[in-house]
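Researcher: Here's the sequence for the chain we discussed earlier.
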Amino acid sequence: MTRRRCSSLPPTITVHYERRCEPEPNNLISETCSYDGDYSGIDSDVTYCPSPGNDQDSNSSSSGPGLLLDEPSTSSGIYHGNPNEGRKRLANRDPGNWKKLKNKKLRMLGEEYLGYTKPKDRKLKQDKIRPARKLGDRCNSQFCRKSKVRNCERFENERRQEIHTNFWKNLNWDQRKVYVVGLVNRKGTARKTNDQGSRREGTFDYFLPMNEGQNLQVCRTTFLNTLCLGSYTVQSWVKKSRDRVIPCQEIQNTMRSRTPRSGTQQKLLTARNFLDNIPKLPSHYARKETSKLYLEPVYRSLSDLYKQYKEHCTEKEEPVLSRFTFEKLFHEKNLSLYTLKKDMCDTCCGHAVGNVTTFDYEQHIKRKNRARQEKETDKKKATSGELILLSMDLESVKVCPYLTASALYFKTKLTCHNFTMYDLVTHQASCYWFDETCADLTASTFTSFVSDYILRYCLPKGLPIVIFSDGCTYQNRNNIMANALLNISVEHDVTITQKYLEPGHTQMECDSVHAAIERKLKNREIHLPSDYITVTKEARVNPFPYEAVQINFDFVKNYNDKTNWRYSTIRPGRKAGDPVVVDLRVIQYRPDGTIYYKINFDDDWTELPVRPRKLNSVAYSPLHVAPIPIASTKFNHLQQLKEVLPKDCHLFYDNLSHE
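Model: Thanks. This is the structure I predict for it:
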């Protein structure tokens, strides 16, 4: 016999393998993109590729569709087929092929099926073949033949077969119960011969339908053999009926009060206490839209949280709740893991589920594309030396100390923040790091950072300044920031323009700085807030490291002092129905002391309908004269955490200002 070796895959395997070898489309951005540009890895719009410099060559591991796998064969050279053939997972579920549902359907239709058995002291097994429902013999008793009441002889086998077929092929179980209850009459005991208690509950009269629509009485044997039912089944259905109606099983199940298993309440109590004791933070980016509480950024996934929960139960010798119930309890408490920012656009998600009209969605997409087009246009102008183009954003909250020790999980920690300013042409990035004792999340804090960056890096060049950001009101789009930038514009004779991206699509170049820092923080321990400064400087080497500025409490100025304001408001309208501050798309601060705005990028410049004040000079005082005190509970927790920190870090936590 000649040995034969297959050199090609079966058709189904070949198709799946060739699909795997197809290269990715060039217009999609790889998740491993490390370019220090306009990509942060969190944009839900995968078609967004703002700059040709961001494109990367996609190397395929396949040499083409002609590359095929070699088929396995035994030592004798006989081909036995691909061992993986038929084992690939289907893309779509097929309940019709499920063993349990197939047998359930067969039982419903009265056909042969595989039933269940319950061996003693063993689990339930589906291994018993149940025969099909077939028409039984008709009663041949002499009593039925002579009886003037029973009509068993009038039902021929053809008619009985019609009744049997209709009963098992056209009805479901609930309909069969109603059908049987309508054909069986239950009568009470007519005469009792024993005064003592008797088990006799009454008499059942059985009927079968004739072609004329008339029900004729028959004996129990004829009735049961025609429908192929058991006596206990029929009597049970009739006894449970009320006014010839069977209660719906689905409704009964919902009204049934379930007694929890022993130990379940204790498991739930332990899990609730565990979740209640974990430190939480409010939403930073969506305080108005959500009331969720977010866990401190110690857990990267629910798996990490559940793993810590099991360790907690082991230490306390408490029973462990299942993963499914634990996650259900986690969501019932309206908790969530802390995320970088709102990754998904609310308008896009709302349109996907039908809550946003197509017209509103199309207008939203147009504004998104127009904002990105505006940024690309300004980027070309900045590259040619016509202006300075900046982007700014706040990184997600960080905590200090940040360790993997279990002692940290139930202790509140010091919160730290990073506000980043990024030059899109020179790639100069300045990261302003501060903890909660040095500054708070107010407009004066962010205005201090923006003013400092402009004074140090932009004014010496003498070019107009354009700043792109999201529309966060307390950070970038408010009267405090506007008056501070206007004062810089007047004092230094420079035009400053703020432009805002479409909400939900605010990915910018400065996000690459945050992504680089996040990668560097992986598997790193943070003992002091100054450790974030070290990580930031190490996050990028080329073309030069990021600038990391550690903020002290006296750095932030009080820009909320109204004596230094030229405009009392930046609202573009005056009466109800007019545009409001959040509708502003572009704000321009001019050296003559005026502010102009645009509602859309394609609109003409319009001056704010507010008369500005004349100021000869401005001077800003410090916002804080001493470190901001933290809560006494947090201070006590930090003192307890010193046990897992190096001794040279203890002095910092001892000197923290607290209530």
